[in-house]
Amino acid sequence: MGSHVSQTMKMMQSNSAEDNLESFQNNGLIFNDKLIPLEIVCTILTYLDCESLVRSRSVCKVWKFLIEQKIFKIKVREKYCTTLENSSKSVLHKLQWYILCQILKAPFYKNLLLNECGQESLKHWTVILSGGNRWKIEPTPQGSDALPDNELEFACHKSCFATSYMECRKQQIIELKNHGFTNSIMDHLQPEIHVSEWYAGRFDCGCKYELHAHLLDSNKKIIDSLSFITQIIIPQWEGRCWNKIKHVFSNYGIGVRYIMFVHSGVDTQYWNGHYGSKMSGGRVYLEFPQMFPSQEQSEDEGDEDEDESGPDLGGDRLVRPRQQFSDIPRHLW
């Protein structure tokens, strides 16, 4: 961080001290009648959270310039970019400050799938098919091994979903914007999308398990070639162990706005009860990319819901930054 701050200080000190005093009279650098070195002010600003930084842009022109042009870049680099490729650092440097703010607030690595183990019954799921004896939540798996210990996906839950002798199918559609992954993040960064789930059968009955994952556009239409579909047949006597299925979407282009997660199961012997496949620990998360896509900015620049009043950063509506040199002291050009 020190090197970034030093570069900023050199740029801002391109003119003499007298010129600085005449142009803005050290505005933003004087605290309790004491002149604080610019490097210390930069260091202090890097400790503010995103909301405080957005509000602090109104303090003075110097702070506005520092926050928009430097501080957000420093914070993103420190949080995510220790091993970032040089080409990606260049892309990052060109991103507008409000996109960097969105990146800092986005919940990378958090599971976006809700009620993944059935701990809340069928809440958050849309049931498509509930054949046979219908979906069942088992507090602990019946006829198969217990859920694996110390696995992140289960979050200490012990329950699972169980299917029956006719197909049971349900889904969740994740709206990325609602979780903080704005259109700008999805189009400019294209973070990797990780999808996974654990599945098992029973020790005594064969079954079938399916997992479908689709990337959808703004109209909730499946984007061509951006689907993952797997079907697994578990023979009788071989199903009690838990296994994990996973897939990663990357380099998927612009326009991804939703993720559809669908799973289903059925037994293959038509036994009354819940002898079909079981599933638990579903997970969908986005990983901050270490290499950004090389692409031209899309025609639909920024978020579809961002109008001329500026992007919604979780607080008051903000004016979209337009780099007007008249807004910046001449010695900062």
TrEMBL record:
Domain FBA: 97-288
Biased amino acid composition, Acidic residues: 297-310
One GO-annotated biological process of the protein: glycoprotein catabolic process
UniProt domain F-box: residue ranges: 30-76
PROSITE patterns xrefs: FBA, FBOX
Pfam annotation, one family: FBA
GO molecular function: ubiquitin protein ligase activity
Recorded superkingdom: Eukaryota
GO CC terms, sorted: cytoplasm; SCF ubiquitin ligase complex
SMART domains in alphabetical order: FBA, FBOX
Region listing for Disordered, in residue ranges: 294-333
Name of the protein: F-box domain-containing protein
Source organism of this protein record: Clastoptera arizonana
